[in-house]
Amino acid sequence: MKIGKTILYMLIAAGLLGGGAYIINQNQKKTHQKTAIIASRNASVPVNITTVDFEHLNIDYSSNGIFAPWQSLSLSSEISGRIVRVLAKEGDFVRVGQTLATIKKEALEVDYSNASATYQNAVADNQRYENAYKTGGVTKQQLDQSRLQLKNAKNALEQAHIKVGDTNVKASISGYINKKYIEPGSMVSPGASLFDIVNVSQLKLQVSVNEREVSTLKIGDQVKVKASVYPDKDFYGRVSFIAPLANSSLNFPVEISVDNNANHLLRAGMYGTAVFSRKDTGVQHAYMVIPKDAFVNGVSSNKVFVVQKDNSVKLTSVVSGRVFGDKIEIISGLNSGDRVVISGQINLNDGTLVSIIK
């Protein structure tokens, strides 16, 4: 009987010891988990930073565009008729007033002769009516009708004269024949295209600039010009036009006139770049800039991590401006002296603690 009680007591003691060990083991696991959580919360992420400051920059603001001819004209026919002669071909240089083609004019000359005769008769008739009216031989209404017929006859004569003159197709600008649409024997009607003429003694580089840049430009400013086909050669031109109204993209069209040298290296339709250069030296012209790498998920996000006094980071929205190489202008959102993360952002969230490498 005593042996049975002893065994019972031993089993109870073993159970108590086992249960206690289990509880202790579970408590230790919970303690380790809490410690790991606290440690993870207190762990800092290594990052590189830069300090926000103002910088004086050599600014080369560039804008791409296309070279256009200084003058461009599509010469059209004023009358109907058959082309008799074509006196210019594609590639020819022509001067203003030069005859380029002739249109058959025999029928028009007959019309002119008839109109001239009609006009002379109207002059004579009107003179008789004027004299007769003075003596009471005709009424005022009859005299007015005679004057109207004279006016109409004169207009018809002038129109016939113009049509005869229009049979000689003449260049209205100096330049090169870029396109010829007719051959001898071609039939043309009013408005039909005859020649395209371009004046490339000067070219216009047509670009667009934003509202900030356009405020710094004025007519006559010298501008360096680059052509994509001549990357190592610099050309120079002057601002010849600044649009008073922005386009749909809120940019302002600007034209730079460029003298084309005797070799005509530049051609209309080529791609070009206008480089608007100036140097800011005054404090009032300094720019707050940060590296492109500071932006989270690219410059377009307009978000950066700013390191706080306790070495936590705050995701901050900024307003960015112009691009200066690998630096971006900051218009608002940051202050001089702010510390901004430039590498390691992928591991950061708002409030993450960081350790600064440099």
TrEMBL record:
Residues 74-198 form the Multidrug resistance protein MdtA-like barrel-sandwich hybrid domain. One of its GO terms (molecular function) is efflux transmembrane transporter activity. Residues 205-278 form the CusB-like beta-barrel domain. The keyword Zinc does not apply. InterPro entries: Beta-barrel_RND_2, MdtA-like_BSH, MdtA-like_C, RND_pump_MFP. Its main location: other. Pfam families: Beta-barrel_RND_2 (PF25954), BSH_RND (PF25917), RND-MFP_C (PF25967). Keywords: Membrane, Transmembrane, Transmembrane helix, Transport. Residues 289-344 form the Multidrug resistance protein MdtA-like C-terminal permuted SH3 domain. It is found in: Cell envelope. The keyword Membrane applies. The chain crosses the membrane at residues 6-24. Belongs to the membrane fusion protein (MFP) (TC 8.A.1) family. This is Efflux RND transporter periplasmic adaptor subunit.
